[in-house]
Amino acid sequence: MKITVLIIALLLSTVSVADGIVIDKIYHPYVQETEQELEFRAVIQDRQPLSPDNNQLYRFAYGRSLNDRWFAEVYLTGDKSENADFDIHAVEFELKWQLSEQGEYWADWGMLFELAKVIDKNIYEVSSGVIVEKELGRWSHTANLIVEQEWGSDIPDEVESTLTMQSRYRQNQLLEPGIELYMGQDTLAIGPVIMGELRWGSRKKVKWESGAIFGLDRKSPNLSFRLLLEYEF
Amino acid sequence: MVCATASATPVVEITIKDHLFYPAELILPAATKIKLLIHNTDPTPEEFESYELNREKVIVGNSSAVIFIGPLKSGTYPFFGEFYPKTAQGKILVK
Questions:
Q1: Is A172 on the interface with B (CB under 8 A)?
Q2: How confident is the model over A109-135, as pLDDT tens digits?
Q3: Is A136 on the interface with B (CB under 8 A)?
Q4: ipTM above 0.85?
Q5: Whole-model pTM?
């Protein structure tokens, strides 16, 4: 436990240096064997002090579990802003690793690995991080601590990191309220989220998440709206 | 049946056969962490799912899986098999 705390403290010392849109999905450390999913994510930010206004990020993904511990997902990422039309600009490959059974230890642990390439520029990004979730009654508290390395001839090499946290109340399957906190480069933001899932038939369900995240300092986007739709089968 | 040693988490076994849970009703102690050992004897996968327990776990055909639950408050916690929800149903009574 002391080693875990030390690692988190060391990683936290680099928090606040991640480029781009920090507000996005918060990962849970669980993998379901045989599961496949189609995913759509959108983040729309308004009144940003440091980038073109009305910045929008979209992700389209297909994922499937490799076994009961690993889940792989491939993304196409697009963006749009006041100054630029919509464009698919990056491909990403992601692996999630479930480290412990849910409820086995004090908290549930996982790891995330990602490799991204900007399509028409020499920019690469590799990231990895820790996912931890703690259940307390009907509350589930989740944290993602992600460290990223960017390199390539079109970007200065740099190490960045983000810390994101979510607390959700398991009210019922259709409707779970929660709150999320995001810390990264030029972003310190918090806001309410609402999520849930709708299932039908044999193992078919749609998960959804939506949130309005408000900046807490002058550098942060004033308001970020995020949406996630996930079809699992 | 709850099996435990002095220091280990108590183990409770559940079997899936012909898309049914055996036993379909379990009585477990409150405030105790339990290790469910689920054997799927069917050739097809099944998913143990319970919103009330905050657990879901796929058990592929002819294999076993472990699910940790609790410590729980007294009450009734239904569970079902997501692949065959009409037949695979059960509940845990915590007292």
A1: yes
A2: 999 999 999 998 999 999 999 999 999
A3: no
A4: yes
A5: 0.89
